[in-house]
TrEMBL record:
SUPFAM superfamilies: YbaK/ProRS associated domain. Residues 65-172 form the YbaK/aminoacyl-tRNA synthetase-associated domain. This is Prolyl-tRNA editing enzyme YbaK/EbsC (Cys-tRNA(Pro) deacylase). It comes from the Bacteria. The lineage of its organism: Bacteria, Bacillati, Actinomycetota, Actinomycetes, Kitasatosporales. GO terms for molecular function: aminoacyl-tRNA deacylase activity.
Length: 186
């Protein structure tokens, strides 16, 4: 039996390139300059209620099965010798980021933790609850769980609490600076 795709849950699914005015500025800029491993027209946008941005509320509203094809992008701060490195970690919503294991090791940090909310939104230029790997600062490491990379399409933030992106997992794995990590999501 094949896995359902996020497109099935929404009545109005459009190519993201047609919705640039609905995206956070860094996301819109990244889409405009897209050079990823899949054509930009395969990146999709659905307009959703900002009050339903959190994964639990979203799947309750649109279908519990969406949990299996949703991904979260969280900002992690890795510290080593007084130097802090911000990184994005993308895992399926059915898992959580292994911050002190896989993420810490990949960052070469002595200690890792979730970044403070004001740091995450200030440095990313995106809204909390909508942070997405598309459009993050180019110098940030991007860690993508292997399960995300292997998912045909994942539903994730659009840079703001309003709207979601539907993106092939391989597109996330192919973003500049992305590293596919086995076991990032536990």
């Amino acid at each position: 039996m094949s896995m359902r795709t996020p497109q099935e849950a929404f009545a109005d699914v459009r190519p993201v390139i047609e919705c640039l005015d609905l995206l956070a500025r860094p996301v819109a800029d990244a889409v405009r300059g897209w050079s990823g491993p899949v054509p930009v027209r395969e990146l999709l946008y659905v307009d959703t209620d900002p009050d339903r941005a959190d994964t639990a509320v979203l799947v309750e509203s649109y279908g519990a099965w969406l949990l299996d094809v949703s991904a979260n992008c969280v900002v992690v701060a890795g510290k080593r010798g007084g130097v802090v490195t911000l990184a994005a970690c993308v895992v399926l919503s059915t898992t959580r980021v292994d911050v002190n294991g896989a993420a810490r090791r990949e960052l070469g940090a002595r200690k890792a933790s979730f970044a403070a909310m004001d740091t995450a939104i200030g440095e990313s230029g995106m809204e909390f609850g909508g942070i997405t790997p598309i459009g993050l600062p180019a110098d940030w490491p991007l860690l993508v769980d292997a399960a995300v990379a292997d998912t045909p399409y994942v539903l994730l933030g659009s840079g703001s609490r309003r709207g979601k992106l539907i993106v092939p997992g391989k597109a996330l794995a192919g973003l500049a600076g992305a590293q596919v990590v086995e076991g990032l999501g536990v």
